[in-house]
Amino acid sequence: MEIKLRQYKLRSFKNDDALSIAKYANNKNIWLNLRDGFPHPYTIVDAKDFISKAKVNHPKTFFAISSEDEVIGSIGITIGQDVHIQTAELGYWLAEPFWNRGIITEAVQKIVAYAFENFQIIRISAEPYSSNTASAKVLEKCGFEYEGRLKSSVIKDGKILDQLIYAIIKKMDD
Ligand SMILES: CC(C)(COP(=O)(O)OP(=O)(O)OC[C@H]1O[C@@H](n2cnc3c(N)ncnc32)[C@H](O)[C@@H]1OP(=O)(O)O)[C@@H](O)C(=O)NCCC(=O)NCCS
Questions:
Q1: How much is the pTM?
Q2: CB of 8 within 8 A of CB of 67?
């Protein structure tokens, strides 16, 4: 499974990716914007564990963002269960040296199109912390609508934070 971006590609994870994932994911500026399930510090063992689970449990929904020689980030959707079976949650991170070049904006646009085309979902949402201006901006650039603020819904690094809810709904002609 591969989705081409202008300069990079989205592809399935490989065992060899552990080194570059650990190198870039071991970054407090990334961890601060994600859930605590994302380890910090982030070791090669964590990367291997993530890759083996992604390959088995999410082979068609979790992707590496990759150059010719290394993985520089990750993007994926998690499809809900029960009454949320037609909705998916979007998550992503990018290696800090590559920030602010439009890479995640392009990746999100491609993943949204892929997800609506290949799964029975009609809604994709994301919940950045309110301090995460870059992520909110990405979502807005990709056509997600701001739906509201979950006040004091998170404790991260000992601080209480708000989450913002953004979502995009499948158009009838998608
Ligand atoms: C959020 C993240 C994925 C963005 O990736 P990216 O490839 O740098 O994003 P893009 O370059 O496509 O877009 C970022 C936009 O935010 C803007 N931006 C970045 N920091 C900003 C700030 N502090 N204030 C205002 N705008 C900011 C950029 O200028 C850009 O907008 P522009 O294209 O209009 O100039 C990346 O910063 C990251 O991995 N952060 C840590 C993990 C994370 O937050 N994951 C998402 C959790 S919801």
A1: 0.97
A2: yes
* 22-48 mean pLDDT: 98
Write the DSSP string, 51-96: HHHHHHH-TTTEEEEE-SS-EEEEEEEEE--GGGTTEEEEEEEE-G
pLDDT in tens, 42-78: 999 999 999 999 999 999 999 999 999 999 999 999 9
User: Is 161 within the bounds of a domain?
Assistant: yes
- What pLDDT was estimated at residue 174? 55
What domain count does the chain have?
1
The protein residue with its alpha carbon nearest to ligand 1, atom 41, reads: 30
| Enclosing domain of residue 77 | 2-169
Task: Check if 149 has its Cβ closer than 6 Å to any atom of ligand 1.
Answer: no
DSSP 15: G
What's the rounded mean pLDDT across residues 18-24? 98
Asked if the structure places residue 37 within a domain, the reply is yes
Nearest to 103 by CA among 124, 133, 129, 134: 134
In a domain, 51, yes or no: yes
Q: Decide if 126 is inside a domain.
A: yes
Asked whether residue 22 carries a pLDDT value surpassing 70, the answer given is yes
Atom 12 of ligand 1, nearest CA residue:
102
- Residue 102 CB less than 6 A away from ligand 1: yes
Q: Tell me, what CATH number does 144's domain have?
A: 3.40.630.30
